[in-house]
Design goal:
Blueprint (H helix, E strand, L loop, with lengths): L4 H4 L9 E7 L5 E7 L1 H10 L3 E4 L4 E4 L8 E8 L5 E8 L15 E4 L2 E4 L7 H4 L12
Parallel strand pairs: 1-6
Antiparallel strand pairs: 1-2, 3-4, 5-6, 7-8
């Protein structure tokens, strides 16, 4: 079975991945950046739930499969070069980051230093089982 025509427009990198940006539909906040392979993108379209490729686990993961902080996808856009996906999502539980924050972009550069500007909404120790080094842990 050949892939749908729309998938042919996506330019996956040498590792078969494309960057995927999750943006909250109500606020416009950028919540996180993750990676998708063809199967993750197809699953996202088929289910309406954000599914990504975990580079650290080398497998598909549905956002929120462990935490319950799922992302219902409202819209999917492709950038002009075909090498980045934008998902407009409704974030369940208000937490997108594995650190327990609303967004993964919680540090701002100020005076040559990264300053944490956003609070922890949920203690990650209460949500997640211990995992490796935390990279790609946006579940």
């Amino acid at each position: 079975m050949s892939p749908p025509d729309w998938l042919d427009a996506v330019h996956f990198d040498a590792n078969g991945l494309v960057a995927a940006i999750a943006q909250e539909s109500g606020t416009g906040d950028i919540l996180m950046v993750a990676w998708m392979n063809r199967e993750a993108l197809e699953q996202t379209v088929l289910t309406g739930q954000a599914t990504y490729w975990s580079r650290s686990r080398q497998r598909l993961w549905r956002k929120g499969e462990e935490s319950g902080h799922t992302q219902a996808v409202g819209e999917i856009r492709l950038d002009c070069d075909g090498d980045a996906i934008l998902l407009t999502v409704t974030q369940a539980g208000g937490v997108a980051c594995h650190t327990g924050r609303h967004s993964c972009f919680y540090s701002r550069l100020e005076g040559g230093q990264w300053v944490v500007t956003d609070p922890v909404v949920r203690d990650p120790a209460l949500v997640y089982a211990p995992k490796g080094d935390g990279h790609d842990s946006h579940s």
